Each structure stands twice: as C-alpha cells, then as structure tokens.
C-alpha cells in the first residue's frame, strides 16, 4: 500500500525515531512508505501541502505532548481533502486513552496502542483486504470504541530494522541522531509512562554494535540514546560503551543513567574514556524522602552523590543532572534543600523541569489526593499543588530561566562560584537573590546571549556586592576572556595596552615561548593574538584573592588550554 507517515518534531534538528522504525519495518513487509518530517514551527498549510503531494491510501501520525494541537488540526484538514483515506495515529499522547481521543478527534480511524512496528504493518495488511483488524489497534464500531487488546510491546527487538536509511541526508541537515537499544523500564516512577511496561527488552548486542558502527562510519557527531535507564545490565551496556570508547571517532554519545547503581568496574572504565566521547544525564528529581517515596523512586543519595562527584573529577564527560518541581510533598523550603543538594554536586548542567501530569500515569490518578492543578492541554504542566502555591511555582519558572542563562550556559562558571562565596548564602538563597533582582531590573523574560548576560552580571555585582566588586569584576573579566573570544567590552578594564611591552618581550623570546607552546610557529601577529591571547588579571579566579596573574589561552587545538605565564610587570 501507499503510506505517508508524518513526524512533526519540536525542533528542526530533532528526528522522529519511533515513526522511522514503523516506516522501515513496513517497507520490509512490501509497503511503499514516504516519511515526512517537519516541525511545529512550520506553517501548517505548508505541511499539509507536502502530505497532499503524495496520493496515499493510509496516513499515519505520531502524537506527542509537543505536537498534539498541531497534528490534530492537520488531521482535521486532511480528512476534508482525503475522505476515503485511512488515518492512523499513535504515540504516547494517544495510546493510553483511545476512547477520549476518538471523542476529541473523530476524523481518526485507528489508534495504535503501544509499540506499533508490527501491528501497524498488520493493519496495513488488513486495509489491503485481508483478515480482521490486528490486535492492539483501537477502532470505532458504530458508537462504541473497541480497544482490541489494549497496549502492546515489541518483545523481540531484533525484528526492528535500522531506522536511518537517509543517514547522509540527516548529517547534511545537521540533525541529531536518536537511538535505542532497550525499551521498557523496571522502575515505577509515578509521573512516567515508561513504567507502564515493567519489562525491559534488549536489542541483541551484535546488532547494536553494527548499528553504532554505521553511525561512526558516517561521521555522526552526536548520538542520543533514548533508553530510559541505559545502565541496567552491566553485561549488556558495558561492552557497548567499551566498543564506543575504543572507536576511532570524534562522535559524542549521550546516555541517561542511574548513577547510584554504577559499579566500581564501570567507574574505573569511565575514568579512561576519551574526553568528550560520552555525555551522562542523571535524573535525580528530588532528595526529599517523602517525595521520593510518593513517586516510587528508591535512590541511594549517598552513593549517587559520591559517584557523580567522582565522575566529575575525571574531567572527561559532560554531566547533566535533573530536578523536577511540583512533586508531591515538596514545598518551596524542601525543594530548596533538594536544589542545594544537587547544585552542590557541581555538575555541568542542572536542568530544572516541571512536573507533567501525563494521562495514564499514577500522578494523573492521584490528582485529587495532592490537589494537582495543571494545564488541561499538552504539555499538562503543573501550575500549583497542595504543597506549592502558584506564586512559588512562578518563582521557580523565573529561576529556571535565569539558571539556564547563567550557570547552565557554562560561560560564567568562576563568576558564579565567586558570587556564591561572596554571598555567604546557600545556592538556592543566592539564586533567589539573583532571580528577584533580575526580574525587578526588567531582564526577564527575555533571552540574553552571553554578552548580554555578562553585562547583566556586571550590573548585579555593582549594585549588590559593592565591597567585593573589584575582585568579582576581575573574575567576570576572566570568564569573558575565556568564553567569549575576541570580545573586549570597554566596561571591563582590559590591560592590553598596559602590558604591551612585557607581552611583546615574551613573544620575542622564542625559546621561552616553546616551553609553553611546543609546536609554536610564527605566522603573523594577527594570527598570534587570535590563537594565543594574553591578559593580566588582578584576582585569582579560583580563590578570589587579589594577585596579579598573566594568562595565555592556547586556541590552536580542538580543546582550549589555559596557561599561567611567569611574566612580571616592570
């Protein structure tokens, strides 16, 4: 049959992995499949035009919290133009409540409930004229909805084909490659749909390694594993990681892990991984024990914290940790404690998320118990709870915005550390001070680039840390020097002219230069100043102590190097 599958992604760089599996499997069963990928930012009539350009008998759509309104509008228009075609929908936003979805979208003919690769192809066979509607495909019979067996999963993941036949095209378009080697989750987190299938199913390791080698051979820069908990079975995931660590590639592989179950063997291995090869995302969500119990999480905080700090000490991986606001039994003071605990780990990024009360989850069923007030439409984000009023939740939204532009940007690491020391506050209290000032000063809700944030932090320091501003502004200048190349705003006191003579003398002494840059070769003064800028700072960025330090940045390689130079100002 002629089939069109439409993946409407949240961003251009994203790819619809699930629908790719569905389409590639259908091709193995003899069906002609066209995949159309667009985003929610594309004009809807332009998407409709692309879909209508293919005269298919079946149109399939994957529905998620980020695209449901867009997809439903699209389907309503498509039905008017293709009244005889079969319209099939699937995905987590529709699979768990077919009766409600059919009432909301009568234009849909079938709903795939669960993992759809096999049952969608069986449905195509039925539509081509054979047999009955396949199990796990919900459909209407008159006024009634036949759930037809409910949710299904793929037990044998070796049946799934490689989902990226267009890998070269994706790379040309700079898209992220998503991949999964397991499905399901053994845990039972109250807010998550993955817990509905408690069984974990694995793609055979030899097939996974073959798939990964295809990514490496193609030069894919980033592969994000979507497995809910990647490191469940050491005998399975460790050989995979070892294979990736030994590969001749510059690719980065992103995994979501549970840090408190990492063994000593795995930790020792991770210490040896090439820099930049892996990124680890660690969902902590809360450190408040009544909250963790309510959401069915059983993390060992002491082990988790120790392992995260040790991972960070290796200095070879980006470590990303998550918190969720709006969980049961967590008010602002207890959330502040969770924030302080997690911020204190020193991860490269602390992502503050907000509870999504998804249909089909335990959290949705416990709405009344916890007085959960949330958006009726996707993304079903929490607005207030019995424990946290709207005003507190709103403050956390402000904090999230400002945290992303400061700490999570990675551009002001030393400035923020110095400010936290100078404040004498907890991390949460300091960011409360910064957030309230930021909002009052009129910088929220705009998004600022690093140059804008640097100017905002300068103003914050001058208005709130008058006694320490000399050292703090020097450290801000250091962050700007390292993170925003070639940008030298006048309002930061640059020493370029004052140190011109001593820096020139350094460059004239080629023997001394080679001690710090062994591969140094003169090309032009312009190139020297671009690749090896030198600046004098009058405060130590690590301690905040007042002292004169000459710093050179070596930008000649893939990784920037910071070199302290023993130059004296005469």
Account of the 3D structure:
- It contains 21 helices and 20 strands.
- It has 570 residues and is α/β, with parallel strands linked by helices.
- It folds into four domains: 145 residues, Rossmann fold; 213 residues, Alpha-Beta Horseshoe (pyruvate-formate lyase- activating enzyme); 84 residues, no CATH class; 71 residues, no CATH class.
- β6 and β7 form a beta hairpin.
- The longest helix has 16 residues.
- The radius of gyration is 27 Å and the shape is globular.
- Its cofactor is [4Fe-4S] cluster.
- GO terms for molecular function: 4 iron, 4 sulfur cluster binding; catalytic activity; cobalamin binding; metal ion binding.
- One of its GO terms (cellular component) is cytosol.
- Keywords: Iron, Iron-sulfur, Metal-binding, S-adenosyl-L-methionine.
- This is B12 binding domain protein.
Provide a brief overview of the structure.
By secondary structure, this protein is an alpha/beta fold. 34% of the residues are buried. Residues 171-397 form the Radical SAM core domain.
| Main pleated-sheet profile | 7 strands, mixed
How does the overall form come out from the CA principal axes? globular
Average pLDDT, all residues: 95
The number of domains is 4
Order of strands, widest sheet: 2-1-3-4-5-6-7
* Portion of residues within helices: 25-40%
CATH architecture of the largest domain: Alpha-Beta Horseshoe
**CATH domain class name of the largest domain:** Alpha Beta
Number of strands: 20
Strand content: 15-25%
CATH topology of the largest domain: pyruvate-formate lyase- activating enzyme
Uncertain segments are: none
Q: What Rg, in angstroms, do the CA atoms define?
A: 27 Å
Class from helix and strand fractions: alpha/beta
Give the N-to-C terminal Cα separation: 82 Å
What's the helix count?
Answer: 21
| CATH homologous superfamily assignment of the largest domain | tm_1862 like domain
